[in-house]
Design a protein that fits this description.
Helix content is 41%, strand content 9%. It contains twelve helices and eight strands. It has a five-stranded parallel β-sheet, with helices on both faces. The protein has a three-stranded antiparallel β-sheet with strand order 1-2-3, covered by helices on one side. The chain is elongated. It starts with a helix and ends with a helix.
């Protein structure tokens, strides 16, 4: 028996050595001896707690559990940070997420020097006083104008106004509102999807409400940014011919500038804005994602851009040529300020993202500085002085006085 036991021990030891010293139990069902690292442990058939630990012994269950736990932590951490990053990078476009899948890319950082901003040459105060004397009291200056504190800037736009207030895309409308804060209210009258035919039908009532209602702020500037939807293919519902488009722009402008118009407003200035370029491939992919076919092209949009410029020259109005300001960078025909890649200006090939909004916003501000410096925030002081200035609101030279205000002060 002793010899047999020793032989069994030798065989077991050899086997244990060849299997990386893993513990083993003898084949005799009555013997509950465990052999591990050349030692025999009698008892229950399990390795006792006081058995010496060596690197060659690894509990497979413990190892697999550790691997599974680490994998779980890594996976949860990855998706957590992915979700957080997605929320931070989201354009936050609200409930209208028709093209959300194609708007995840917000464009690279600005390249090169930033687009220059013109500094206006402000008119002298004497010029304002002389102009008011020449106007007299019968040319549109009413008591309501004298009572109004803040001015108003109207933005009449179509699809180019979509996401114009979205902070994640540096919306151009939000940037304009920041410029005139404390001076004028920037009011968006945006109609995404509207062509100039549809805007023309509602503009008289809209203009009357903005200019002729009682105790409203005087409209100092109207920015007309239309034509993006007019430039659709002829077989689409939004299409407007070039001649009709130009005639509609004349009608909208003449409703403000001509004395014969019932909504004539001599103190209101006008700026035209051309349609922006179109990224054909990007826009076609965005439409295909919602089972729609291509409805416009960049080459056709260029024809409406030229028509808008022609109307501006004809009526002697400043024109912000957004199409040229973006396209010339892609073509390499002008100094680069943003990017030479057309896709960097759009969220979906059609609606502007951060770089496109920067081009439009700065184009409008430069047009105001060049053509209407008296309306530029640099030359247009705030209605009431700031807290840290020496003067008080009661001493402000901009404070309007009228009977209504005086009566309210007595109550």
């Amino acid at each position: 028996q002793t010899t047999a036991l020793e032989g069994s021990t030798t065989a077991t030891t050899t086997t244990s050595t060849s299997t990386a010293s893993s513990p083993s139990v003898t084949s005799n069902s009555n013997d509950r001896t465990v052999y591990y690292n050349g030692q025999a442990y009698e008892g229950t058939g399990r390795l006792p707690r006081d058995a010496p630990f060596t690197p060659t012994y690894v509990n497979a269950y413990t190892f697999n559990s550790a691997v599974a736990f680490v994998s779980l932590i890594v996976t949860v951490s990855f998706f957590y940070f992915k979700i957080i990053a997605g929320i931070l990078e989201s354009p936050q476009i609200g409930p209208d997420r028709e093209f959300q899948s194609s708007m995840s890319y917000m464009g690279p950082s600005d390249q090169g020097e930033p687009r220059p901003m013109l500094t206006p040459l402000c008119p002298m105060p004497e010029q304002f006083q002389e102009t008011r004397k020449q106007r007299g009291s019968g040319d549109g200056a009413s008591d309501d104008d004298n009572c109004a504190l803040f001015g108003k800037i109207i933005i009449l736009a179509d699809s180019i106004s979509t996401y114009g207030y979205t902070h994640a895309t540096h919306g151009w409308l939000g940037s304009l509102s920041d410029e005139w804060v404390g001076r004028a209210d920037v009011a968006l009258r945006g109609f995404p999807g509207y062509n100039t035919h549809w805007v023309k039908s509602i503009f008289p009532d809209l203009l009357h409400q903005e200019t002729k209602s009682v105790n409203v702020a005087p409209v100092k500037l109207v920015i007309i940014a239309l034509g993006t939807d007019d430039a659709s293919f002829p077989n689409t519902r939004q299409y407007v011919s070039l001649d009709a488009y130009k005639e509609n722009l004349r009608f909208l402008t003449n409703s403000i500038r001509y004395p014969e118009s019932p909504n004539y407003s001599p103190d209101t200035q006008v700026i035209l804005v051309t349609p922006a370029p179109l990224h054909d491939t990007m826009w076609e992919a965005s439409l295909a994602a919602v089972n729609k076919t291509l409805d416009r092209s960049n080459s056709m949009t260029k024809e409406y851009v030229d028509a808008c410029v022609q109307v501006g020259e004809e009526l002697q109005l400043p024109v912000v040529n957004v199409w040229h300001d973006i396209q010339c960078q892609v073509d390499g025909t002008c100094q680069l300020h943003e990017s030479e890649r057309l896709e960097d200006y759009f969220m979906d090939g059609f609606h502007l993202q951060r770089m496109g909004n920067e081009v439009l916003y700065k184009g409008i501000m430069n047009a105001v500085a060049l053509h209407y410096p008296q309306l530029h925030p640099v030359c247009w002081p705030t209605v009431f002085p700031g807290y840290h200035t020496e003067s008080s609101p009661e001493q402000s030279i901009l404070k309007r006085h009228c009977n209504n205000h005086n009566n309210n002060n007595k109550i």
